[in-house]
Design goal:
The protein is of the alpha/beta class and about 300 residues long. Helix content is about 30%, strand content about 20%. Strands 1, 2, 3, 4, 5, 6, 7, 8, 9, 10 and 11 form an 11-stranded mixed beta sheet that branches.
Length: about 300
Amino acid sequence: MHSPLSPDVGVPSHFESLDSLSLLHVPEREKPIAQLPSLLCFRDDPTNVDFHYFRQVAGYNTILGGRDVVVMLPRELEQDPNRKFPAVYMLDGENLFEAFPSRSPVPRWQVARTCRELIDKGQMEPVIIVAVFNGGKAAREADYTHVPHPEWPSNSTGFALNFSRFLFHQLMPAIDALYPTEKSRAGIIGSSLGGLFSLFAMSEHRGIVSKVGALSPSLQWDEGKLINRFEQIDRGEDIFLVAGQQESAPLRNYTSRLYHLLRGNGWNVSTHFQGALDPNGSHNEISWRSQLKLVLPFLYPKLSK
């Protein structure tokens, strides 16, 4: 099903070691990763998509081990090596691609297939997907939550600031150095706690994250206090916000509240679902896979020539 890539197939012409990466003038703990781990390249035959797989990427700010990272390259890169593409950082990376095994038996989002279909239909522009694996249940709960939960064990949650610094100050510069990314249009997409983190990341790293897909964001984690951050932020970027009618009342209510706040402040928020509530939506991968087919065209519609 998957064929290994030869050295000159699927790898960008400017692919090189990051040994010579010019480090930013930031504190040592936030310097970009100087050397990504060994690279596995292969092509997924059904979608004809190239994957670059980096095992156990770690930085100063990662806890409980490294995070696997998979970069999915659009075939348009092969057709036009000089073209730049937006990079979309997607959380819970092990659940996104059928081509990769997962720790959990949940259905995959079929990201490669969805992107290819939407691009071929002219509904979205080609993008580079950067899928970041979650590192396991304990690491996920620590990474994706911005404040500790009072009922959870001490030091087990509330490390989103650390993880966001890893993503945007350490991993992102390394990705930008390796691939032809359009830096000003980077986005992030996550679901559940990943949706919560995506919203936190936008509020914390203004100017770095310009587009967000927050699916079933667990805003009830801090009883909706994260929403208060957006009351203080000027009109900004594109946000696709959605919760399912089959989900818990607190999650639905907080999501709808944030939706109306952003709309009232002039943000470009998707209006596909009234009040950001999907009548058929549930808190699972099947719903998020379906919603992704709306998220990507909203955040990255096909550009007119």
